[in-house]
Amino acid sequence: MYKKFVQYIVFCLILIFPLAGLANDSDFLYARYQDYDAALDYQTYPASLKFMKPGDQTSLTVKFRNTGQAIWRRQFINLGTWQKQDNSDPFWDPQTWRNSARPAALLEEEVKPGEVGTFIFTVRAPLLGGYYRQYFRPVAELVGWFGPTDIYWEFFVESPVPKSLVSWRLPTDRTLSMRPVSFPNAPRPYRIDCTRGVHEGFDFYAPYGANVYAPAGGKIVRADHQYDNRQTMDSIQYKNLTDDIMWRNLDLLRGRQVWVDHGGGWVTHYAHLSAVNEDIHVGDLVDRGQILGQVGKTGIPGDYYVNYHLHWELWANDKYFGQGMDYASIKKEVTKMFGMK
Fold first, then answer.
1. What percent of the chain has pLDDT over 70?
2. What is the pLDDT of residues 113-153, one digit of tens each?
3. What is the pTM of this model?
4. Which three-class secondary structure state does DSSP give residue 316?
5. What structural domains and CATH numbers belong to the chain?
6. What is the rounded CA–CA span in Å between residue 194 and residue 301?
7. Facing residues of 38 across strands?
8. Nearest-5° angle of CA 239, CA 245, CA 247?
9. What is the pLDDT of residues 149-165, one digit of tens each?
10. Three-state SS for 295?
11. Fewer CB within 10 Å, N- or C-terminus of the chain?
């Protein structure tokens, strides 16, 4: 009876953490946290980590010897982000990582006590330059973390603000709000039930209908002339959430938008607009200071109070500007970008 109960609980958890095959794995069902342990066996340290530019990619390998009593099985042994446990890592590669806190699964199908297990993963340098020290540790999903706590890599990333981005004009006539809640990575609890609940841009507070400008020249790649706020909000999904569905939900919650491609992989997003300039269309070239639309608050749930504002994002290499970084570092770079003091 007890075994059936445990299997039922594990099955329910698998619906949340889709790790194939766990329900039939007796080692997983009855493994104890103290049965898992590991010792570092091998770690690569490429010289390229000291000379990275935003978007650069490098492959890393780390091997651990199984010094515990449990057998490691590939379907539920991962390498995870450590020190700020399960934190979204600024070096995560969306194309190869399992998610932003799980760079790799165990390479071998199983690793018995005394044998060596391997994790191979790709890191992609973030948009913000500087020195980074990123920690990783093995984790038996639904059981616990194990092994050494001092495994890390050091990275040196060049400043992310190229000459083409320096001295951009502000996208509104109002200055950027310097409150941490208006910066990337600030929590957004009102949408935690349908997205990851994290802010990915900057908020410029301005009156309803205030003009929104292109901070630099570029090409229009999105212009939401046709937009129905009620229909859009009714399209948000709250069940069976996957990364793709959460991304779609977040796009809907940004409301009416314009996107501008500035070249070199840099794209800016302008969200919550009340209107889009009727003279711009996808494929059009725009100049620095050209009007893109007007400030509003489309896409924001009706029962969530917020002042009218422009939500502005800068993206490159599938990452938003400021991803995984602290407030002080982001403030320094965005101040440089817009020439603010």
1. 87
2. 999 999 999 999 887 777 889 999 999 998 999 999 999 99
3. 0.64
4. strand
5. 2-157 (2.60.40.10), 180-338 (2.70.70.10)
6. 12
7. 66
8. 135
9. 999 999 998 765 555 56
10. coil
11. C
